Amino acid sequence: MNTASKLPLRVGIAGLGAVGLDVARRLIDGDVPGLTLAAVAVRNVEKARDALPQIGDMIALRTPAALADDCDIVVECLPPARFRELAISAIDKGRIFMPLSVAQLLENGDLIERARETGARIVVPTGALLGLDAVRAAAEGTIHSVKMVTRKPPAGLEGAPYLRERGISLAGLKEPLMVFDGSAREGARGFPTNVNVAAALSLAGIGPDRTELEIWADPAVTRNTHTITVDADTMRFTMTIENVPSQNPRTGKSVAPSTIAALRGLVSTLKVGS
Fold first, then answer.
1. H-type alpha helices, 5-144
2. Which end of the chain is more exposed for a tag (fewer CB within 10 A), N or C?
3. Do the Cβ atoms of 35 and 263 come closer than 8 Å?
4. What is the DSSP letter of 248?
5. How is residue 59 annotated by DSSP?
6. What letters, b where the CB count within 10 A reaches 16 and e where it falls short, cover 37-69?
């Protein structure tokens, strides 16, 4: 019997914003045995080296397209416009691709079939959402409806394409304002950096066209709040989560630890839930 230890899986991170940097530091600190941070892809090299002096030494610097060349797992923490190039590179090389811009999967649905053909895996972290295990279990039967209501401080929604196109300003908002009511697919297109949780919910359940979504700008809330109601033949449940915003008001503090948990699940001997 071969008792030699397995080599650690090599992780590459594209983007070192608030989430990517936190994940990178935890990997460097050895928080997840069985994984090692091998490479990063960044736009601002000097800023990245200030944050992580190991870049260029123990951590290779790569372009997004080359990140998958020598990494087993590619974690995406990029602006939506740069998503597809990275995804195609990782998927075509048969890697494990972990997207945080989950809404972009709805806009690039062909990537799922492409991964099936190449043997790649697309692993979506839970992120700011709870109850995905229950939704996935319900989806093994019949789900009748899924609705999500998101409330965010106005600053967390500013600049969304949907608001810009309709000339909706949230400046000086005094009362809650519903800014969107439609499907998760439409919401992901109009709010590509704001509703990745809705995209993940739709992929776990009944799809982006049948998943209902409301988005509220609410000056009274200080946390990104999501309430989800699922009605299925095996269960009916409602869940609410309040996420503390990170330095980037569009992203909750739970995203980085959720990503670490998803990475840990790839190498853990004991794995509880998804």
1. 18-28, 45-51, 83-92, 103-107, 110-118, 132-139
2. N
3. yes
4. S
5. B
6. bbbbbbeeeeebbeebeebeeebbebebeebbe
Closest CA to 180 of 192, 171, 241: 192
Tell me the average pLDDT across 141-146.
Answer: 98
Kindly state the average pLDDT of the residues 254-270: 91
Which residue is associated with the tokens 């990782």? 90
Pairing of strands 236-243, 177-183: unpaired
What digits encode the pLDDT tens for the residues 89-112?
Answer: 999 999 999 999 999 999 999 999
> Do the beta carbons of residue 216 and residue 150 sit within 8 Å?
yes
Q: Higher confidence at residue 34 or residue 6?
A: 34
Is 226 an annotated catalytic residue?
yes
How long a stretch of residues is the chain? 274
* CATH no. of 132-243: 3.30.360.10
Residue 1 has pLDDT above 60, yes or no: no
Extents of the domains making up the chain? 9-127+254-265, 132-243
Closest by Cα among 172, 73, 69 to 120: 73
Query: Tokens 């995209």 belong to which residue?
Result: 199
Structure token pair of residue 136: 């996935």
pTM, 2 dp: 0.90
> What kind and span of H or E run contains 202?
helix 196-204
Class of domain 9-127+254-265: alpha beta
DSSP H or E stretch at residue 165: helix 161-165
Determine the Cα–Cα distance for residues 226 and 68; give it in Å rounded to an integer: 34
Q: Using one digit for the tens of pLDDT, what is the confidence trace for 181-221?
A: 999 999 999 999 888 899 999 999 999 999 999 999 999 99
Rounded to whole angstroms, how far apart are CA atoms 225 and 21? 24
Question: Which residue in 95, 151, 226, 253 is the catalytic one?
Answer: 226
